[in-house]
């Protein structure tokens, strides 16, 4: 049996660091110092007292705001084996639209009048309605510890969106903002009927509710909006590691934010999962709702040492998707991708879905991208006869391959050339901003472009804290954080494009050498 509750909650400043959380252990001294107490966990939400847990809750809030987005996580209080059940959260402790409306007649009656609202809109209104109740709701302790603001794309302002630089990303961010605006407008009549306080009916409040749902809900079979799961929603993310690296089968990935946690785990009599796993089955199954015991169950996806941070895979995401749904990105994300704009007639040439035509994080073009460009680079009259070669992933001819690689290089270069700053300038911007934030005033801007200076000036203005109220300071801090996320995102994207250029150039060199060898041997 899983040992009974050994949980501690600690507020400290462990993760006030710019390093990604993924893989970084919590500092053991903090963990050792953490008061192991049911009482502390009880602060989050009383029913968690009945949870089974074999990890500690380590809270780390390092910034001037109370609950700043993603600084807390869960750490093991003892060694944990891969496959062990580490947390169960009973159904009655899950916050769902259904559980909220079943205890609130007014909400239930009002919702009946708006059958066209989506599940996410219903959950957002239900969440705001619960917050509106203040201390009288049984959910108050849980609601109180939710982050006060988020950094998902729909919360980005103009400057932050423009800092993404790439058209696709800017479009994604604008679409996210628009979607939230539309959802909010459609729900305003319902919120009016519920007499929500003015500040809970604003677009800002809607953004908060929508971001809470996007970044914290977990998949449940009976509601596509998912559920909020106290304590379970403190697990931070690690990209699915055992993912076959170049798997391009998107169909079974990325099912839903937050946690694509398909149930179906095989369990043996002790609470560990049978080994060996089928890597495919293992991929996204470290948590899920289990009907038989009516609880959300969390399993360790690997072995952990005492003090390690315990991580969960929410699914397979590119950095832009992580930013869109969760408000963070990974500096080393094996599932990151870059997309180059294709020629219009390329789409009609292939049956591959558009999102399979991309460049891998290591710079290699995807199978589908290569196959498509190979066919496109073939004279129209020959395409039918060589279609099977491109579809099997082989090069059509040396000449064709050179055209393909050169086309990819040209397009990567064009994308990089369209950006107002270079990779080096982005690195410099991030370093400079860190220095400014660390109060180091001796900054050498060096030889940078005008765009870089304009962006830096905008940042300095943002960072100007003179005569700022506490609220304005918080707003500025968030804005700077989002802007940095945008710069980090475009930097990682540009690095993929650069890797791709190097990869294609190496291949071109190899092909040229081969051709030279061939010519030499022909002439002998
Ligand atoms: C389900 S919550 C996890 C708990 C959260 N850290 C907290 O303090 O409440 C998901 C959020 O945590 C943060 N997060 C999760 N994994 C992260 C990671 N690997 N790096 C940075 N932030 C992460 C992001 O803000 C994300 O939206």
TrEMBL record:
InterPro entries xrefs: Rubisco_LSMT_subst-bd, Rubisco_LSMT_subst-bd_sf, SET_dom, SET_dom_sf, SETD3_SETD6_MTase
Please name the Pfam families in this protein's record: Rubis-subs-bind, SET
Q: Name one GO biological process term.
A: methylation
Supply one GO molecular-function term: protein-lysine N-methyltransferase activity
According to the entry, every stretch annotated as the SET domain falls at: 47-315
Q: Respond yes or no to whether keyword S-adenosyl-L-methionine is given for this record.
A: yes
- Out of the domains of life, which is the source? Eukaryota
Keywords linked to the UniProt accession: Methyltransferase, S-adenosyl-L-methionine, Transferase
What is the protein named?
A: SET domain-containing protein
């Amino acid at each position: 049996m899983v040992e009974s509750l050994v949980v501690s909650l600690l507020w400290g400043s462990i993760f006030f660091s710019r390093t990604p959380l993924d893989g970084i252990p919590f500092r053991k001294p903090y963990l050792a110092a953490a008061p192991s107490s049911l009482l502390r966990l009880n602060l989050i939400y009383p029913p968690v007292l009945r949870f089974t847990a074999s990890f500690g809750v380590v809270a780390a809030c390092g910034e001037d705001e109370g609950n700043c987005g993603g600084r807390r996580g869960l750490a093991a209080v003892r060694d944990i084996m891969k496959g062990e059940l580490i947390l169960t959260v009973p159904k009655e402790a899950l916050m769902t639209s259904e559980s909220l409306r079943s205890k609130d007649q007014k909400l239930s009656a009002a919702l009946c009048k708006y059958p066209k609202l989506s599940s996410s809109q219903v959950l957002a209104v239900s969440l705001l309605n619960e917050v509106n109740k203040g201390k009288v709701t049984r959910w108050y302790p849980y609601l109180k510890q939710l982050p006060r603001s988020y950094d998902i794309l729909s919360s980005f302002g103009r400057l932050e969106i423009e800092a993404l630089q790439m058209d696709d990303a800017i479009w994604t961010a604008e679409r996210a903002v628009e979607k939230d605006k539309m959802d909010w407008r459609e729900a305003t009549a319902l919120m009016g009927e519920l007499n929500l306080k003015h500040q809970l009916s604003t677009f800002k409040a809607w953004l908060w509710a929508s971001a809470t749902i996007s970044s914290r809900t977990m998949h449940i079979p009976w509601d596509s909006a998912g559920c909020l799961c106290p304590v379970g929603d403190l697990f931070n993310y690690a990209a699915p590691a055992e993912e076959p690296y170049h798997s391009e089968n998107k169909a079974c990935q990325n099912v839903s934010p937050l946690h694509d946690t398909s149930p179906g785990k095989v369990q043996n009599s002790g609470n560990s999962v049978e080994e060996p796993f089928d890597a495919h089955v293992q991929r996204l199954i470290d948590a899920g709702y289990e009907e038989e015991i009516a609880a959300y169950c969390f399993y360790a996806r690997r072995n952990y040492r005492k003090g390690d941070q315990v991580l969960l895979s929410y699914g397979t995401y590119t950095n832009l998707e992580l930013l869109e749904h969760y408000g963070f990105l990974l500096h080393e994300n094996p599932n990151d991708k870059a997309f180059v704009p294709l020629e219009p007639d390329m789409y009609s040439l292939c049956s591959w879905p558009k999102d399979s035509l991309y460049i891998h994080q290591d710079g290699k073009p995807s199978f589908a991208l290569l196959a498509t460009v190979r066919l496109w680079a073939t004279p129209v009259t020959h395409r039918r006869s060589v279609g099977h070669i491109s579809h099997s992933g082989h090069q059509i001819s040396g000449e064709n391959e050179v055209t393909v690689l050169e086309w990819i290089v040209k397009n990567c270069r064009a994308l990089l050339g369209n950006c107002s700053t270079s990779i080096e300038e982005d690195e410099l911007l991030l370093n400079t901003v860190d220095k400014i934030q660390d109060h180091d005033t001796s900054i050498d801007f060096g030889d940078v472009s005008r765009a870089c200076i304009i962006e830096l000036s905008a940042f300095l203005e943002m960072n100007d804290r003179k005569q700022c109220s506490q609220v304005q300071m918080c707003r500025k801090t968030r804005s700077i954080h989002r802007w940095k996320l945008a710069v980090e995102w475009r930097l990682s994207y540009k690095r993929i494009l650069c890797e791709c250029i190097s990869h294609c150039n190496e291949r071109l060199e190899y092909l040229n050498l081969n051709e030279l060898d061939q010519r030499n041997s022909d002439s002998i």
